[in-house]
Amino acid sequence: MYYDDSILDEVRAANDIVDVVSQTVQLTRRGSNYFGLCPFHNEKTPSFSVNPSRQTFYCFGCHEGGNVFSYVQKMDRLTFPEAVRQLADRAHITLPSGGDAEKEKQKTDKRKRLLEANKEAAAWYFYRLREPKGDAGMQYLLKRGLNGETIRAFGLGFAPLSRDLLVRHLREKGFQDAEIVEAGLAVREEKGGLKDKFWNRVMFPIQDATGRVIGFGGRVLGEGEPKYLNSPETMIFDKSRNLYGLMYAKNARKGHVILCEGYMDVIAMHQAGFPEAVASLGTAFTEGQASLLKRHTKEVILAYDSDEAGTRAALRAIRVLRGASLRAKVMSLSPHKDPDELIRALGTEEMERRIRQAENAFLFEISVLEREYRMEDPAERTEFYRQMALRLVQAFPEALERENYLQTLCARYHMDVADFRDLAARVPAGGQAMAAGTGGTARARAGKARGEEQVKSQRMLLSWLAERPADYERIRADVSVSDFTDPFCARVAERMFPALEEGSFQAAALQDRFASEEEREQCGRMLNMPVVIGEKEQERAQALHDIVLDVIRRSYEEKLREADPADPSYLSMTIEGKQKLEEFSRRRL
User: Fold this and answer.
1) Is residue 430 pLDDT above 50, yes or no?
2) Rounded average pLDDT over 550-569
3) Highest mean pLDDT: which of 150-159, 421-430, 501-510, 566-575?
4) How far apart are CA 326 and CA 298, in angstroms?
5) Which residues contact 528 (CB under 8 A, 6 or more apart)?
6) pLDDT 10s digits, 493-522
7) What is the pLDDT of residue 435?
8) Helix %, strand %, coil % of the chain (to 5)
């Protein structure tokens, strides 16, 4: 649902951030701000700051920051539209329903009916498990080591060996045949009748993060195929964007999430005291699932099966997690196949030890790569080193992080640090090793370093202006949007500078002007990043001058590098740029 800026401004203005945060965090006034223990990471000393004048928050420990919408999003694990609706309800503000109100209402009503059908089916399966005909299902669960409390907590059930018992039950409850099919609970036969989707299976209700039943997984009893059967994709069930067990794991507050392969692994982990376990839904781990996890954690520990298929799945998941900027580790389950088997064989203390000793994901990738080479053969060992260097450069474009891993790999494989560093320096991030002496990689690294420094000064300037918007008047003639060479900083400046010109800038409102979740979060962190301004006016003026000068200078240098010297305007651009730098460097703000 899209809400225009006027609606967002109204809802934001009606929800004072101090009041909202105070509902979950004990705040104490300190100067012009309020401080408390951060709700997003464990800490003993309050580093979580709420600024009532800017209507923003920032944690000096974990660096989360934003406005009242992003706070509610992070705290309650909501999407942006959900957070807007929640705060609108809190302030008794009626939100617009959208373009076609009747069509929107029909869609909402249909979703509600499908959710109600799934809820009713879950209850029906739950009670069938406890009947004499469900004893086979109950015995299966008990033999797998589950106790009655766990079976109840996860709402496990049983689909009896029948043709249409569930269909008839749902009809009696007032559901139409079309609704039953659309909910994924039945299939149409050729003759037009309905047949239950699941039969002779132990049933695992699949819930979304808010606890609503959106689908099912069924494990066949006996030798039938498929062994596990999931609900089809429906209006309310998207396998690629949901995770089994997330409703419980999101409140575990363990600092990580354990990603398993199957339902039973998750349930066994929870029963053993590891509520942070989740599983993908019968498919390979997806980008959508990684985005969902990113709302709840920064670190994921993979607990995939220890066989070859599990290893391949772990390698795929690592790449997805890395793409989502999530830290990943891999837990060793050997000699056991899966978490359920390990817990039953070795107990919870051993599982805790395995979690603590989970291997860094990149080092796991290298250990798997090593299996492809006969290390006693000098030629194959050399090729392994080349491939390891290639993986290193591809995985870690940041020089400092790459160097840390380089040192670790050298220690593990007894390599000379200087030799391996030289090998890595001749491997560009794009792929094949380069001939020594080309200088391509060095130029790429130098270009990246320049880019990082440019972004740093540009972010500092935007953070400064968010903190002290009145200072824009002092630099407005010297800095323009075109001076921001970083694309995201430029987009922030495009939205910020006109508001500063009009005197209507609000830091809390700016991040809501971005459409994507990722950009809103990025903007919230950047604008609330603390900048050391200084106590005395002279110190503040000098600090602002230095930041602006750096932005102008680096922007000029970057434009000069990209320009063609043969262009007739190249000379005039060079002269004008130098004059601007010289004039500003002599100025006092």
Assistant:
1) no
2) 78
3) 150-159
4) 5
5) 56, 57, 58, 65, 66, 463, 466, 507
6) 999 998 898 888 888 888 888 878 788 888
7) 34
8) 55, 10, 35
Query: Are the C-beta atoms of residues 250 and 276 closer than 8 Å to each other?
Result: no
Token match 């239950």: residue?
A: 196
Once rounded to an integer, what is the mean pLDDT over residues 195-224?
Answer: 92
Q: Say if residues 110 and 232 touch (Cβ distance below 8 Å).
A: no
Minimal CA–CA distance to 479: which of 540, 552, 424?
Answer: 552
- Contact call for residues 324 and 287 (beta carbons, < 8 A): yes
DSSP codes of every residue in 262-323:
SHHHHHHHHHTT-TTEEE--SS---HHHHHHHHTT-SEEEE---SSHHHHHHHHHHHHHHHH
Q: And the tokens for 118?
A: 């799934």
3 state SS for 403-459 = HHHHHHHHHHHCCCHHHHHHHHHCCCCCCCCCCCCCCHHHHHHHHHHHHHHHHHHHH
For residue 261, the SS3 value is coil
Over residues 302-341, the pLDDT tens digits come to 999 989 999 999 999 999 998 888 999 999 999 999 999 9
Rg value, the chain, Cα: 29
Q: Does domain 5-90 have CATH number 3.30.2130.30?
A: no
pLDDT at 89 over 70: yes
- Three-state DSSP at 229 gives strand
Report the pLDDT averaged over residues 234-251: 89
Within 8 A by CB and 6+ apart from 569, the residues are: none
Tokens 């701000």 sit on residue? 33
Question: Considering the chain, what is the average pLDDT of its residues?
Answer: 86
pLDDT at residue number 102 = 61
The percentage of the chain sitting over the pLDDT mark of 70, rounded to a whole number, equals 92
Over 34-45, what HEC string results? EEECCCCCCCCC
- Residue 470 carries which side chain, given as an amino acid letter? A
Residue bearing the bigger pLDDT, 130 or 325: 130
Residue 446 pLDDT grade (very low, low, confident, very high; cuts 50, 70, 90): very low
Torsion angle of C-alpha atoms 133, 138, 139, 142, degrees rounded to 10? -170
CATH fold for domain 453-586: DNAb Helicase; Chain A (1.10.860)
Instruction: Locate the domains of the chain by residue range.
Output: 5-90, 101-237, 241-366, 372-438, 453-586
* CA nearest to 166, candidates 111, 236, 117: 117
Burial 491-517 (b: 16+ CB within 10 A, else e): bbbebbbebbeeeebbbbbbbbbbeee
Residue 72 CB partners (closer than 8 Å, separation 6+) = 20, 78, 83, 86, 87
Burial 85-99 (b: 16+ CB within 10 A, else e): bbbbeeeebeeeeee
347 dihedral zone (left: phi>0; alpha: psi -120 to 50; beta): left
Amino acid found at 468: R
pTM, full prediction: 0.61
Q: Could you confirm whether domain 241-366 is CATH 3.30.565.10?
A: no
The CATH number of the domain covering residues in 101-237 = 3.90.980.10
Q: What is the layout of strands, in order, in the sheet containing 33-36? A: 28-30, 33-36, 48-51, 56-59, 65-66
Phi-psi region of 199 (alpha: psi -120 to 50; beta: other; left: phi over 0): beta
Residue 242: which of 302, 290, 304, 186 has the closest Cα? Answer: 290
| CA atoms of 502 and 42, how far apart (whole Å) | 41
